[in-house]
Amino acid sequence: MRCSRCGSPIPPRRLVNAERVGARADYCSPSCRNAAKQARHRDRTPKSPQDRIHLRNLAAHGMIAAKVMRDPTLLEIARNNVRRWTERNGATPAIEHWQALLQRNDLAEVLYAMLRVDDEGMQLRSSSPFAGVLDQFEVELLARAHRP
């Protein structure tokens, strides 16, 4: 048999050991196996700066959702932000959507909107009224975790 990554012959000892445990030897060495694993990981990483922004926003809203689940009164910060932004700049479709969600006072529905992974979820997170929910330490932690 040949290595799936480099095409070298797989050493007989590796074939025997894999067969003994009911596995299949695909790689000739641990370094080939690790290189193939890294290549698979690279294929799943965000490609564009915008993808990284969406991923960071999703992570931030995961942190916000955890805080809101522990203390639902934090929704008042979002309500105040929506009210202030509407008074200052008028209502946008995304702000109107957040306003409707927050007025219904359904925590599960708000959390679902924050953590959706579809296009509408990305749009809602990009105009999120939850500014001020995370403290300075949490913001810095998030920034360090998502450096390019």
If you had to describe this structure to a student in words, what would you say it looks like?
With 148 residues, the protein is an all-alpha fold. It folds into 2 domains: 12-44, no CATH class; 49-145, no CATH class. Helices cover 68% and strands 0% of the residues. Helix 3 runs antiparallel to helix 6. The mean pLDDT is 89.
Key terms:
mainly alpha; 2 domains; 8 helices; 68% helix; elongated
> How much helix is in the residues?
55-70%
Order of helices and strands, N to C?
Answer: HHHHHHHH
Report the total helices: 8
Briefly note the structural class of the backbone. mainly alpha
Q: What's the average pLDDT?
A: 89
Brief write-up:
This protein has eight helices and no strands. By secondary structure, it is mainly alpha-helical.
SSE layout and pairings?
Elements: H1 12-20, H2 30-44, H3 49-70, H4 75-89, H5 93-104, H6 107-115, H7 119-126, H8 136-145
Helix pairs in contact: 3-6, 3-8, 4-5
